[in-house]
Every structure is written in C-alpha cells, then in structure tokens.
Amino acid sequence: MANIPTEFRGVTAVAKANVYFDGKVVSHSIVFPDGSKKTLGLIYPGKFHFNTGAAERMEIIAGECIVKLDGQPGVATYTAGQLFDVPAKSGFDIEVRTGICEYVCSFLP
Fold first, then answer.
1. CA 36 distance to own-chain centroid
2. Which of 19, 66, 75, 106 lies at a CB distance of 3.0 to 4.6 Å from 57, suitable for a disulfide?
3. Fold for domain 12-107?
C-alpha cells in the first residue's frame, strides 16, 4: 500500500472547480510553491473516460474504482491507499459502482 498523503501545506488552492460529466466528477487544483500542480477530486457512480496530456498518478484516498488504461488488456480495481499511473498522451476508463471515490491526481514530469 502506498503512502497516500492526507494533507498538503503551503499550497495555493484554486477556488473554481473542474467539473466533468454533468458534475459526476469534480476536482479542485492546488499549486505548490515550485509550480507543480495536483488535483483533489471526487468521482460519483458511473463510467468515465479521461484523456491525458501529461503523465498522471492517481492516488485513491477513499472508495473504490475500476480502471482500464488505454492500450492495456484487462481492468484493475483500486481502493483507498492504492495508486495507478497513466502515461502521457493516452487515457483511461474509470468506473465507480457505488459510493464516492476520492482521489489525488499528480501531474508527473
């Protein structure tokens, strides 16, 4: 199990939410002093596809999701304390069947 963060200090929080899929996926951006960015978000039940520009790391804080990375066979289930990486210029399907999945998305170099 990964060492998933529980709080971030010394960051700028962006008040305007990123809202996707009619409000079923919502996140807020935080910016660190070095300019790096993360998003903190919620995914409500449903199945969604995201494309990536930069590589991303998705850390699951609470709940459960089922993920299929573009170009990869099969799916994997992730729960609180687990993470998955998504390559740059690709995408992934993510499904939440029940409850709410909470996550931290880090944009990787």
1. 15
2. 106
3. Jelly Rolls (2.60.120)
